[in-house]
């Protein structure tokens, strides 16, 4: 019996030791599986909170004064809101603009803002951006046939209406020339739609005849010059009024008129409020321009872009069909500018200085 008791005592001791060791092992395992210490988690959150939002801005061109202004105004507005912006301009090259936009997407921008050169070609970028979880805001020009998240521009149809109303007041009867913008730009179509909305009743009554109507490829002023010269030759210089899709094309039309001694004798309308156009209006060779307060546009887009990048949903009342979907749309109002209200509009807003506009 004693021998058996001794063995039992030894077994009991061994079992106790095993239990102690096992318990220690489990406690160690539990400690290893705990979350990281609180300070490390807080540091991570702090880093994320300090990270600036980055907005990508893909622009068609910087060849015109207007777009140089848009770039700087948009950059300033975004930075004032505490975000960063990276900007690329393709100067009318569709393939380059797509490549630049893809670069911005690959860099992980929080939102992509696009001024498309070709309204349809940039649809592929919207798809690629969305596949990367990046929303796309269409700036001033609508991207067609794509699920664009938001479109902000001026009322471009109203731009055409203002142009035509100004010229028909001066020339209610006569032969009209229309110099369009780029056929690939949705805005060019909207402007033309507005122009002909006003002209059509005059045309129906036989008071106005549009004797020439052509697009200017890529908004290139050289095409506008060729178009104006062709119109003059085809009509034996018998032209009464010219409506051009923007100030650059209007300037080239005026150069063609100068060649034939007609500058200042035939009313010419443009739009954008470019400095050379403002100077021509004061000098009397251009009748009017349509001023679009792009500072207001740039600031509106910047504010909404940052909000969208932060995940905020933007509610708007208007929508525009882009051939695929009804795109939520915000449209700002343009302003007709002539010699009479130049000081109260363009100069008052410091869009151009009085010294620049009235330069002899």
Structure characterization notes:
It is a single chain. This protein is of the alpha/beta class and 360 residues long. It folds into 2 domains: 52-148 and 294-332, Rossmann fold (3-Layer(aba) Sandwich); 156-292 and 337-357, 3-Layer(aba) Sandwich (Rossmann fold). It has 13 helices and 13 strands. The protein has helices spanning 2-32, 38-50, 65-80, 94-106, 123-131, 156-170, 186-204, 221-234, 247-259, 275-283, 294-309, 343-347, 354-357; strands spanning 54-59, 84-89, 111-114, 135-139, 150-154, 174-179, 208-214, 241-244, 268-269, 289-291, 318-321, 326-332, 335-337. Strands 2-1-3-4-5-12-11 form a 7-stranded mixed beta sheet, with helices on both faces. A 4-stranded parallel beta sheet has the order 7-6-8-9, sandwiched between helices. A two-stranded antiparallel sheet has the order 10-13. Helix 3 (65-80) crosses helix 11 (294-309) and helix 6 runs parallel beside helix 7 (186-204). The chain is globular and about 60 Å long. It starts with a helix and ends with a helix. 42% of the residues are buried. One of its GO terms (biological process) is D-xylose transmembrane transport. Pfam families: Peripla_BP_4 (PF13407).
């Amino acid at each position: 019996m004693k021998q058996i008791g001794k063995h039992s005592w030894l077994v009991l001791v061994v079992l106790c030791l095993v239990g102690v060791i096992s318990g220690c092992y489990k406690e160690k395992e539990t400690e290893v599986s705990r979350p990281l210490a609180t300070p490390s988690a807080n540091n991570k959150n702090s880093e994320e909170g300090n990270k600036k939002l980055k907005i990508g801005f893909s622009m068609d061109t910087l060849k015109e004064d207007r777009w140089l202004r848009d770039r700087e105004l948009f950059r300033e507005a975004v930075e004032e809101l505490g975000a960063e912006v990276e900007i690329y301009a393709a100067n009318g090259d569709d393939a380059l603009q797509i490549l630049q936009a893809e670069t911005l997407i690959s860099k992980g921008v929080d939102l992509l803002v696009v001024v498309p050169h070709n309204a349809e070609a940039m649809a592929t970028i919207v798809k690629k951006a969305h596949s990367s979880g990046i929303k796309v805001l269409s700036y001033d020009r609508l991207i067609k046939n794509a699920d664009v998240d938001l479109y902000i521009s001026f009322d471009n149809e109203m731009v055409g209406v203002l142009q035509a109303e100004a010229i028909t007041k001066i020339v209610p009867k006569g032969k009209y020339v229309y110099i369009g913008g780029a056929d690939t730009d949705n805005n060019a179509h909207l402007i033309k739609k507005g122009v002909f909305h006003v002209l059509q009743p005059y045309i129906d009554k036989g008071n106005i005849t549009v004797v020439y109507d052509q697009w200017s490829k890529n908004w290139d002023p050289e095409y506008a010059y060729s178009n104006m010269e062709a119109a003059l030759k085809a009509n034996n210089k018998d032209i009464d009024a010219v409506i051009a899709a923007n100030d650059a094309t209007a300037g080239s039309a005026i150069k063609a008129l100068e060649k034939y001694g007609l500058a200042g004798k035939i009313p010419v309308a443009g739009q954008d409020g470019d400095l050379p156009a403002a100077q021509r209006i004061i000098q009397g060779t251009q009748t009017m321009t349509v001023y679009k307060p792009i500072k207001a546009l740039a600031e509106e887009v910047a504010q909404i872009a940052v909000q969208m990048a932060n995940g905020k949903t933007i509610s708007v009342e208007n929508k525009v069909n882009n051939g695929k979907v009804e795109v939520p749309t915000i449209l700002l109002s343009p302003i007709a500018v002539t010699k009479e209200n130049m000081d109260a509009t363009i100069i008052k807003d410091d869009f151009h200085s009085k010294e620049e506009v009235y330069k002899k």
